[in-house]
Write a structure and sequence with these properties.
- Helices cover 23% and strands 26% of the residues.
- It has a five-stranded antiparallel β-sheet, with no helix packed on it.
- The protein has 139 residues and is an alpha+beta fold.
- 25% of the residues are buried.
- The longest helix is centred in the N-terminal third of the chain and has 32 residues.
Length: 139
């Protein structure tokens, strides 16, 4: 009788340990996809979500940025952190196009406040933070 009680307690302990492990893994997954690099720093700009910016002609803030047509390049941009948010508009609440990889090269189209308007190698146009901890611009 005592050995079956020990076995039951051990089984309950293992189940609780698995539940805690699943919760930690779920939290870590959510944390990584919410815009943080491996060091734990946010890959978001520090600009407030309601800050206004001046949109360039043909770009609608908060909507799909589209593809580059005849927008002239003013330089190039190198992504410095994995998971940098590539967004459809120049605000933190704009839709996410995708996360960019460290070392990825972008074409710099314009600087709009705290944001760069860029296009990727596939011609997709969007916005990234202009913070020097996330990107490096070159002319």
């Amino acid at each position: 009788m005592i050995s079956s009680a020990k076995a039951l307690r051990a089984a309950v302990g293992v189940i609780l340990l698995l539940i805690v492990l699943m919760m930690v893994l779920n939290f870590w997954s959510d944390y990584r996809t919410a815009g943080h690099d491996a060091s734990g720093y946010s890959t978001e700009s520090t600009q407030s979500p309601d800050a206004s910016t001046t949109a360039s002609p043909g770009a609608t803030q908060g909507s799909a940025a589209g593809t580059a047509s005849n927008t002239p390049s003013i330089g190039s941009l190198t992504v410095l952190v994995d998971g940098l948010n590539f967004r459809t508009g120049a605000t933190r609440d704009a839709d996410l196009i995708r996360g960019l990889d460290a070392g990825e090269k972008l074409t710099l189209l314009a600087k709009e406040g705290e944001w760069y308007r860029v296009s990727d190698t596939a011609g997709e146009v969007g916005y990234v933070s202009s913070s020097s901890q996330y990107t490096k611009a070159a002319k």
